[in-house]
Amino acid sequence: MPKFDVDESLVRKLAGLLEETGLNEIEYEISDQRIRVTRGGATMIAAAQAAPMAQAPAMAGAAPAAAPSDAPPAGAVLSPMVGTVYVSPEPGAPPYVKVGDQVAEGQTLLIVEAMKVMNPIPAPRAGKVEQILVSDAQPVEYGDVLLVVQ
Length: 150
Prior knowledge:
There is one protein chain. By secondary structure, this protein is α+β, with helices and mostly antiparallel strands. The protein contains two helices and eleven strands; from the N terminus they run αβββαββββββββ. Strands 4-11-9-6 form a four-stranded antiparallel sheet, with no helix packed on it. It has a four-stranded antiparallel sheet with strand order 8-7-5-10, with no helix packed on it. The chain has a three-stranded antiparallel sheet with strand order 1-2-3, covered by helices on one side. The radius of gyration is 18 Å and the shape is elongated.
């Protein structure tokens, strides 16, 4: 992967746009260089221009078949950022929730740590915890299903 110099002022402008617009992610590409900034951190990716072109036909052909199976289950709580998930407030403490627990809207379900910041993940609705799909200290990506609340 080729290296490129990061334009700090561009990254700051993109981060400012995220703040102004309330978006969670923004991507800027020029020539064969790409910068993606997400809330909770910045990811910089350098990619050859030919790589996205090679992927486009495969993605276009596979999208209709893959879309139904890639859809998150009903009641899914998704990770709002890239980071490390923790199921309890500190090592050795009981987990925030277990399968079968009733939760209130806004109750902390777990924590995603990103860039040394602990981000509580609240329950989007009241309900019962049906599944927990992550384990303690597991790395997660933006959009990963963490658990299911019905």
